[in-house]
UniProtKB/TrEMBL annotation:
Keywords: Mitochondrion, Oxidoreductase, Transit peptide. This is Reticulon-4-interacting protein 1, mitochondrial. Transmembrane segments: none annotated. Pfam families: ADH_zinc_N_2 (PF13602). The lineage of its organism: Eukaryota, Metazoa, Chordata, Craniata, Vertebrata. Belongs to the zinc-containing alcohol dehydrogenase family. Quinone oxidoreductase subfamily. InterPro entries: NAD(P)-bd_dom_sf (IPR036291), YIM1/Zinc_Alcohol_DH_Fams (IPR050700). It comes from the Eukaryota. It comes from Nothoprocta perdicaria. It is found in: Mitochondrion.
Length: 175
C-alpha cells in the first residue's frame, strides 16, 4: 500500500519494528506494549485495514474505519478451509457463503466494506509487482534460503513462526 502513496500504520512486535520502518511504515505499534485496540483508537480513523490475525480483532477493528467513505476491511483469515474440513465440501461452501454474505451486508449497513482475501496466480498482477520491485517501491525481504535437500529444515523454521521475511526453497542446485 505504501507503494501507492498511502500513510501506513503497521502492527508488529517491537523486535520487528526496525524492519517494518525500513520497509516504509509511517507508524509502528508494538502489539505487546499494552491494549492494542486502545492504541489504535488513539490514531485517526483508517481508510483501509488488512487483518492477518483474525479472531477477536475483527470484533473491534471495523470500528477503526472511516464510516460512509468507502473504507474497507480485508481479512486474510477466513473460515473456508475449516468449514470444508468440518462440514464437507457442499455444506462447508454453503456455510462460508452465508457467513461472508451476512458479514458483508451487516458491515455495509454500518458504512464500511468487509472483504475476505483469496489469492490466485495472475500474470498481469505479477508483472505489476515485478515493476514495483524493479523501481524500488517494493523491497522483498528474504529471511532464509534453503536448498531442495533442506526442505524438512525449512518446514521446521516455518512452524517456529516469527520469520522476518520469506523462507525460500532453491529448487535449482547450482554446482
Amino acid at each position: 500500500v505504501k507503494a501507492w502513496g498511502a500513510h501506513v500504520t503497521a502492527v508488529c512486535s517491537d523486535d520487528a519494528s526496525p524492519l517494518v520502518k525500513k520497509l516504509g511504515a509511517d507508524d509502528v505499534i508494538d502489539y505487546r506494549s499494552g491494549n492494542l485496540e486502545e492504541q489504535l483508537k488513539a490514531l485517526p480513523l483508517f481508510d483501509f485495514i488488512l487483518d492477518n490475525v483474525g479472531g477477536s480483532t475483527e470484533k473491534w477493528a471495523l470500528d477503526l474505519l472511516k464510516k460512509w467513505s468507502g473504507a474497507t476491511y480485508v481479512t486474510l483469515v477466513t473460515p473456508f478451509l475449516v468449514n470444508m474440513d468440518r462440514l464437507g465440501v457442499a455444506d462447508g461452501m454453503l456455510r462460508t457463503g452465508v457467513t461472508i454474505g451476512s458479514k458483508t451486508v451487516k458491515h455495509l449497513c454500518k458504512g464500511v466494506h468487509y472483504r475476505w482475501a483469496f489469492f490466485m496466480p495472475s500474470g498481469p498482477y505479477l508483472d505489476e509487482i515485478a515493476e514495483l520491485v524493479e523501481s524500488g517501491k517494493i523491497h522483498p525481504v528474504i529471511d532464509q534460503v534453503f536448498s531442495f535437500s533442506e526442505v524438512p529444515e525449512a518446514f521446521l523454521k516455518l512452524e517456529g513462526g516469527h520469520a522476518r521475511g520469506k523462507t525460500v526453497i532453491n529448487v535449482i542446485d547450482k554446482q
